[in-house]
Amino acid sequence: QDSGKYKGVIEGCCCDYESVDSVNGEVLHPLLQELVKTPFFRYFKVKLWCDCPFWPDDGMCRLRDCSVCECPENEFPEPLKKPFLHGLPADDVACQEGRPQAAVDRTLDSGAFKGWIETDNPWTNDDETDNDGMTYVNLLLNPERYTGYVGPSARRIWDAVYSENCPKYPSGEMCQEKKVLYKLISGIHSSISIHIAADYLLDESTNKWGQNPELMYDRVLRYPDRVRNLYFTFLFVLRAVTKAADYLEQAEYDTGNHTEDLKTESLVRQLFHNPKLQAACPLPFDEAKLWQGQSGPELKQQIQKQFRNISALMDCVGCEKCRLWGKLQVLGLGTALKILFSVDGQNQLSESLQLQRNEVIALVNLLSRLSESIKYVCEQGPSIEKTMERH
Ligand code: FAD
């Protein structure tokens, strides 16, 4: 695999582009693709309908694809009401609008998440222990792709995220920790743009979907720092997952479907304790270097507050499907931050760390999204760049 112009060690991390591309392509991407399809990882609990705390709602759905469609109870296949008992293929679902791509199951309740503790994530705005208004979304039926959410509404969210919470740092002026927050957000933004370009509505009249290389170039590839931030974010989240590997391996993946659950456990083991990953990138990111100075605790609190603001902004995203993936990825990142900063004096994972089932689902799905974006950039970036730069 050719990583194109990206070579050498990824800034702020401990591995190089070439190793990341190769271990991602050979090991991580295939395992993650399998893992996110398992019954444990494909249902995400989310509060989709909250008022925006910053400005009045300006829902801007242009395409129907923008919405996460709900299926009335009688149309929802019985086995999916107890998704952990049956591994039903996604395309068996007949949705209200005749569209199998999206489904929210309001018939599930918190019992479905039994066996895991309920705890609030201090990095996010939502109270994860409050089940009121939560719905369960089958992520496989709601892929992250182009939705037609563009214009001032979308722009306002990104502007608020960048300008209010993590302004682009002037070189040398900002401390390491603030740079980290900026890079993480920018990395997720790159990944979202790549998924939009990878699954784009090319022709509305014929409903033809496919890749939009020009968009991938215009939004991401022509800006090397956006690509670098994507790799940085991937390694940051990967570090969180490997740091919590023992905890995650011992966790409860029981969904009632014995065969599927065994597969989930095996995939989790292969992914989190992977010898090839160990060899290629033993320490994806060194969090021990952060929060070391005297102002450490204060700084951490300040960044936590900023991150919670970013999380609250997700309620202002005027497109349901974008809000779903926005919330999932912010919770995933909040979980990575929670893991990386739950440490004892020796920077070992604190024994008191407790994760919610939903946090683990968000973390793994975020890693999978980033891994897929890296794969696109690695495999298609160089040829797209060549074509676009010729014009
Ligand atoms: P935008 O992507 O809106 O970018 C705005 C500005 O931010 C750019 O002009 C640039 O200055 C800066 N910028 C862009 N990328 C980066 C980066 N990587 N790092 C740093 N700065 C950057 N649309 C969909 O079709 N499907 C989705 O699933 C989807 N999910 C979304 C989730 C969230 C949380 C949000 C806020 C928006 C989502 N959108 C989604 C909308 C999408 O992200 C764009 O906002 C929209 O397509 C308009 O793009 P744009 O060209 O105006 O640039």
From TrEMBL:
User: In the UniProt entry, which residues are flagged as the active site?
Assistant: 319 (nucleophile), 322
One Gene Ontology term from the biological process aspect of the record: protein folding in endoplasmic reticulum
Q: What is this protein called?
A: Endoplasmic reticulum oxidoreductin-1-like
UniProt keyword terms in alphabetical order: Disulfide bond, Electron transport, Endoplasmic reticulum, FAD, Flavoprotein, Glycoprotein, Membrane, Oxidoreductase, Redox-active center, Signal, Transmembrane, Transmembrane helix, Transport
Which residues of the entire protein appear here: the answer is 67 to 457 of 469
Disulfide bonds, paired cysteine numbers: 61-66, 319-322
The membrane topology term of the UniProt record is: Peripheral membrane protein
Cellular component terms (Gene Ontology): endoplasmic reticulum membrane
Family assignment from sequence similarity: Belongs to the EROs family.
